[in-house]
Amino acid sequence: MFSIILALILGGSYLYLRRRDARMLRNGLVLVAACWFAVTGVSQVLAQWFPWTQWITLGIVALTPLAVVVLAGFLISNGLRMIRREGRSLGNLLSLIAGLAVLVLPVIAALLVITHNPVAIGLAALLFFLCSYFGVVFVVFLAYAMVYGRMKHTVSPASVVILGSQIINGKVPPLLRSRLDKGLEVYRRASAQKELAPLLIPSGGQGADESRPEGAAMADYLVAAGAPSEHVVAEEKATTTAENLQFSATIAQDQGRGGAMVIVTNNYHVLRAALLSRKLGLEAQVVGSPTARYFLPSAFLREYVAILTEHKVLHALLCLPFVALTLFLTAALVLASS
Q: Which domains does the chain possess?
């Protein structure tokens, strides 16, 4: 019963935090914790009322190693598919690397433990702690990314910012086209509800392998798709998501559209764009466009790595207790064996 009460408290906290500002990753932590305690509490109640349900819980636990193998196989298969379709790059290799890590790391930990060497056992413990920590962080990120991506925007935008991605031969490829189509959908809906239509800002600079700025190619697509040219102002200098948002906000201000904005990107990128918009102090909501399914595992992993990198100092500090605990356990094992 305590777990259910705690789940209700956490659930209420999540709703409050989400209403206050949905663009916080801590919301995802509270949501995942609420779900965990809810499942735990319900399982405990069912075990008291129907003792046979304990066998279901034991069965799920027993199948965990199989689930790990299945997950690893899926990630490896997806990684190979990404290489075939998208080419070899570090970003496209992420699902393959993750799948191999899921298979190899438990084996390494087991080999370290069976050496019976205190230092090796300590390393195995540290590996377990760190993998558990980053695994929980990934679950929180993925769960809240999916939840945030399904939220409906409620602002009446003064501008609609569409984040750029790589163009091919000066044209927008399917991934970027889905963002532009979503941006047009938001623009048309907002135009029908207010006298002053929002400003469309396609944002993206020119990469080394691109023949022109992404923003220019995106603007051409929007105008060809029916958006009035006077409602489209391209941003053509940004090279990162943060610059996309900063430079686009400046354009909106210069054009007299400094109010709320809706930011459009692909669904896997929505949460990080939202976190950045909050960090930059922008009044904004982020919506996502569909992405090919085979592309999603690597894309979510790439976003996860980017968020870890942006908060590397915080995560390093949070990992220090695990290092301290490992040193304590190693020292205790050394003393016990001497």
A: 2-150+313-337 (no CATH), 159-291 (3.40.50.620)
